[in-house]
Amino acid sequence: MNKSKIIFITGATSGFGKAIAEKFAAHNFDCIITGRREDILKEVAKDLETRYGVRVLPLVFDVCDRELTFEKIQLLPEEWQHIDILVNNAGLALGRESFETASMEDWDIMVDTNVKGLLNVSRAVLPFMIENKRGHIINIGSTAAKEVYPNGNIYCASKHAVDAISKAQRIDLLPYGIKVTGIHPGAAETAFSIVRFKGDVEKAKSVYDGYEPLHAEDIADVCYYCSTLPDHVCINDLVITCTSQANSYLIKKNGV
Ligand code: NDP
Ligand code: 8X3
């Protein structure tokens, strides 16, 4: 009997992670989904199992908590250890302020989550991939990984680090046959800006006024494409924006 493939997705309670889980579940992948909000994560798991008839394992942990991250992943039951794809997606921006006034507490949280969290999860999952001599790590960066924009300072720095880590992983994991792909989306309307502006829904909404941003499903489609190519093909780096966006700081709004 053919074993189902297993995808491990961080930050699947919302936005990209949730859409990626849905896309892969619809294509018969068993899914390990993670996040901090237990109720939502369990709801997502139940919904995917019911609709797609796949197995879904919700794992509740904060990616910043190294000890707990390792504990949860090392204690995966044997039948969940054959992880084919890891999507390092959990992440956030907090605030959009100039360098001299931005909150340093916000900086700490962004670095801890977007950089150290990604490192924690990657290192904890890697032994399974190395044992299997195959695997695929997909790191969700951003257009902010490619150019810094005004008041983006440490969010952009954290995503530049994701870009560098993806390149480093691609080099160091080459002997194990592990693929590494960086996917770098531009503006997409998810809970991202609501989190960034700390619950100010109007301000968050205004980020997407006057143009059609990306949808979470667009990222899920690209993720699925990158991870279902033949064994000898690896997309190393992929930047995706809506048609109205040229780079991390230039968006045509209201046709202008
Ligand atoms: P959402 O806010 O919708 O989703 C973020 C997800 O990350 C949630 O599931 C959240 O789960 C999880 N998460 C955040 N912090 C932690 C943590 N400390 N531990 C575990 N899980 C955490 O945003 P998006 O889906 O838009 O963002 C997903 C990724 O895409 C992020 O890395 C973001 O930087 C990146 N990105 C987003 C873009 C956009 O315009 N939306 C564009 C480019 C990149 P929970 O709260 O349950 O822990
Ligand atoms: C999220 C998109 O433009 O806020 O990475 O940096 S943006």
Give a quick set of tags describing it.
alpha/beta; Rossmann fold; seven-stranded parallel beta sheet; 42% helix; globular; binds NADPH dihydro-nicotinamide-adenine-dinucleotide phosphate
Q: What would you note in describing this structure?
A:
The chain is of the alpha/beta class and 256 residues long. It has one domain (6-240): Rossmann fold. It has helices at residues 15-26, 38-52, 66-74, 104-132, 153-172, 192-196, 201-206, 216-227; strands at residues 6-9, 30-35, 56-60, 85-88, 135-140, 178-185, 237-240. β1, α1 (15-26) and β2 (30-35) form a beta-alpha-beta unit. The radius of gyration is 18 Å and the shape is globular. The N and C termini lie far apart (56 Å). The mean pLDDT is 98. Bound molecules: NADPH dihydro-nicotinamide-adenine-dinucleotide phosphate and 2-hydroxyethylsulfonic acid.
List the helices and strands and how they pair.
Elements: E1 6-9, H1 15-26, E2 30-35, H2 38-52, E3 56-60, H3 66-74, E4 85-88, H4 104-132, E5 135-140, H5 153-172, E6 178-185, H6 192-196, H7 201-206, H8 216-227, E7 237-240
The site of NADPH dihydro-nicotinamide-adenine-dinucleotide phosphate has 29 residues, from helix 1, helix 4 and helix 6.
Short description:
This protein has 8 helices and 7 strands, in the order βαβαβαβαβαβαααβ.
Could you give me the name of the CATH homologous superfamily?
NAD(P)-binding Rossmann-like Domain
Biggest sheet strand line-up: 3-2-1-4-5-6-7
Low-confidence stretches: none
Shape: globular
What share of the residues lie within helices? 40-55%
Give the beta-strand count. Answer: 7
